[in-house]
C-alpha cells in the first residue's frame, strides 16, 4: 500500500500544477491533526477520562503539531524534522503496528484511523518535497536531533510523572531485538539503541532526500 500510494503521489504531481499540489499539501497538513482529534474524541466517547492518556506525545502523535507548523510556516528546521521523523515514524508504525494488531479487528475505527494517519505522515513530507521546494540536506541533521531531543524529554517527563509509555521510553514495544537489548543492558542500553536507531533512520532519510533532489 505504501509503494502504491507513493507511486500515485509522484505521478499525480507530474500531471497537476504546482499550485494544485500545494493545495493538496495544505489539505493533508490539516487532515493530520483532524484524524488525531477524531481518535481522542472516540476515546472520550468510550469513557476515557484520564487526560494524560489522550496526549499526542508519541513520535507520530507529535506530528499533529509539527506538520501543520512546517507546511504553513515553511520553516527549514521544522520541515527537516518532519521529513526525517514523520516518514520514519509512519513506516515503522505501519510495519510494526504496536497496540493495533491483536487489540482491534481489521474492520475497526481505530485500525482505519491509525492506518490513514500514518499513511499521511509518509505522504505529506513527500508532497512537501515534490511541490513545496523543500530540499533535504545532511547538514540539517543537528536541528532535527535538537527538536527530537526536546520532544523526547517532554515525553520522558510525562512517562515518569504519570506512568505512561510515550515514545516507548518506559516499556519496550514487541520488537524482538529491542526486548533482547533491554534484558541484556537495561534502560541505558535500550535508550541508547532506540535513540541510535531513530537518528540513523533520520540520517538515511536526509541522505536519500539529498540524493533524490540532486538527481532531479
The profile of the biggest β sheet is: none
Low-confidence region ranges: none
Residue-averaged pLDDT, rounded?
Answer: 89
Radius of gyration: 17 Å
Fraction of helical residues: over 70%
Please, how many helices? 7
Beta-strand percentage?
A: under 5%
Q: How many separate structural domains?
A: 1
**What is the overall silhouette?**
globular
Class based on secondary structure composition and strand pairing: mainly alpha
* Oligomer designation: single chain
Cα separation of the termini: 25 Å
Protein name: TIGR02206 family membrane protein
Transmembrane segments: 24-45, 51-72, 81-106, 112-131, 143-162, 189-212
Keywords: Membrane, Transmembrane, Transmembrane helix
Pfam families: TMEM164 (PF14808)
Amino acid at each position: 500500500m505504501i509503494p502504491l500510494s507513493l507511486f500515485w503521489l509522484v505521478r499525480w504531481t507530474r500531471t497537476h500544477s504546482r499550485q494544485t499540489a500545494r493545495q493538496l499539501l495544505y489539505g493533508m497538513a490539516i487532515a493530520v491533526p483532524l484524524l488525531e482529534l477524531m481518535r481522542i474524541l472516540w476515546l472520550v466517547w468510550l469513557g476515557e477520562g484520564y487526560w494524560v492518556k489522550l496526549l499526542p506525545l508519541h513520535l507520530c502523535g507529535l506530528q499533529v503539531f509539527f506538520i501543520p507548523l512546517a507546511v504553513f510556516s515553511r520553516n527549514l528546521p521544522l520541515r527537516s524534522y518532519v521529513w526525517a521523523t514523520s516518514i520514519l515514524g509512519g513506516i515503522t508504525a505501519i510495519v510494526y503496528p504496536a497496540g493495533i494488531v491483536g487489540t482491534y479487528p481489521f474492520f475497526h475505527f481505530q485500525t482505519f484511523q491509525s492506518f490513514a494517519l500514518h499513511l499521511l505522515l509518509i505522504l505529506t513530507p513527500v508532497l512537501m518535497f515534490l511541490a513545496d521546494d523543500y530540499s533535504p540536506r545532511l547538514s540539517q541533521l543537528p536541528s532535527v536531533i535538537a527538536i527530537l531531543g526536546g520532544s523526547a524529554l517532554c515525553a520522558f517527563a510525562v512517562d515518569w510523572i504519570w506512568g505512561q509509555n510515550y515514545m516507548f521510553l518506559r516499556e519496550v514495544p514487541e520488537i524482538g531485538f529491542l526486548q533482547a537489548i533491554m534484558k541484556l543492558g537495561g534502560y541505558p542500553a535500550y535508550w541508547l539503541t532506540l535513540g541510535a536507531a531513530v537518528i540513523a533512520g533520520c540520517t538515511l532519510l536526509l541522505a536519500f532526500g539529498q540524493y533524490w533532489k540532486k538527481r532531479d
